[in-house]
Specification:
By secondary structure, this protein is α/β, with parallel strands linked by helices. It is built from 10 helices and 5 strands, in the order E-H-E-H-E-H-E-H-E-H-H-H-H-H-H. It has helices spanning 10-23, 35-44, 61-70, 85-94, 107-118, 126-136, 150-160, 165-172, 176-190, 195-204; strands at 2-6, 28-32, 49-53, 77-81, 99-102. Strands 2-1-3-4-5 form a 5-stranded parallel β-sheet, sandwiched between helices. Helix 1 (10-23) crosses helix 5, helix 7 crosses helix 9 (176-190) and helix 7 crosses helix 10. The radius of gyration is 18 Å and the shape is globular. The two termini are 35 Å apart. The relative contact order is 0.10.
C-alpha cells in the first residue's frame, strides 16, 4: 500500500507516518510539504490514498482536492485539519473527499479511517453523520459563514485573523482589488458592516485560532 501525506509541518507528517506504519503492514509512505509538491507527486506516482492537510501555503488542501477531482483522478483522499468537523468537513465531502479527520483524533481513529476508505467506503464520525443528516433537511438553517463559497470562506478567515488585503492577496496570489471584491461579497452575504463585526462573529463561532 502506498500513501501520500501532505502537510507543511514535518513533525505532523512524521507522526502520521509512524502511526500508519505501526498499525498497517507493507505500507510505503511518501511526503509532501505543500499542495503543489503533492500535486506533482500525485501526477507522477500511483497512490492508494492521500492524506491532505487543509491549511498549506500556496495551494491549500481543499484547492488540491478540487484539482485532483477536476483531473478525474479517483484517488481516495482523507482530509486532516486542526479545524473542527462542523467548519470544513461538509465542504470537503462535497468537493470529493472520502473522509475528514481532526488532528486531535486518537491514533486508532486515523487507522480506522484509512482502512475504511481503502475498502471503498467513506469515513465520517458520529458527530459528522448527524451534521450531514441535518443538512439533508431542506429546511435546515445555515449559519452566515456557511453561505460563503470556498474561496470566500478562506478570505473571510484571513480577514477575521486580522490580515490586511495586501497580505491576503500575497498569500493567495491574487490582486488586492480581487480581495476587496471578495470582502464586499462576504460582508453582503453575512450581513455585516465591518471587519470588527466579522472578527467578533469568527471568535464566537471558533472559526479562527
Amino acid at each position: 500500500m502506498k500513501v501520500l501525506i501532505a502537510d507543511d509541518h514535518p513533525i505532523i507528517r512524521q507522526g502520521l507516518k509512524q502511526i500508519l506504519k505501526d498499525a498497517l503492514e507493507s505500507i510505503s509512505v511518501d511526503e509532501a510539504g505543500n499542495g503543489l509538491e503533492a500535486l506533482t507527486k500525485i501526477n507522477n506516482e500511483l497512490y492508494d490514498i492521500a492524506l491532505l492537510d487543509i491549511s498549506m501555503p500556496g495551494m491549500n488542501g481543499l484547492e488540491l482536492l478540487k484539482t485532483i477531482r477536476k483531473q478525474k483522478n479517483k484517488l481516495p483522499v482523507l482530509m486532516i485539519s486542526i479545524y473542527p468537523e462542523d467548519q470544513y468537513a461538509i465542504r470537503c465531502l462535497k468537493a470529493g473527499a472520502s473522509g475528514y479527520l481532526t488532528k486531535d483524533s486518537a491514533p486508532d481513529e486515523l487507522t480506522l479511517a484509512v482502512e475504511r476508505i481503502l475498502s471503498g467506503k467513506k469515513y465520517v464520525s458520529p458527530f459528522l453523520a448527524d451534521k450531514l443528516a441535518s443538512h439533508l433537511n431542506a429546511g435546515a438553517l445555515q449559519l452566515p459563514h456557511e453561505l460563503l463559497s470556498d474561496r470566500e470562506d478562506q478570505v473571510m478567515r484571513f480577514i477575521a485573523s486580522g490580515k490586511t488585503a495586501t497580505a491576503i492577496a500575497n498569500e493567495l496570489n491574487l490582486s488586492v482589488k480581487t480581495i476587496n471584491t471578495y470582502r464586499n461579497r462576504i460582508f453582503k452575504k453575512m450581513q455585516m458592516k465591518n471587519s470588527a463585526e466579522l472578527i467578533r462573529y469568527a471568535v464566537q463561532n471558533e472559526l479562527i485560532d
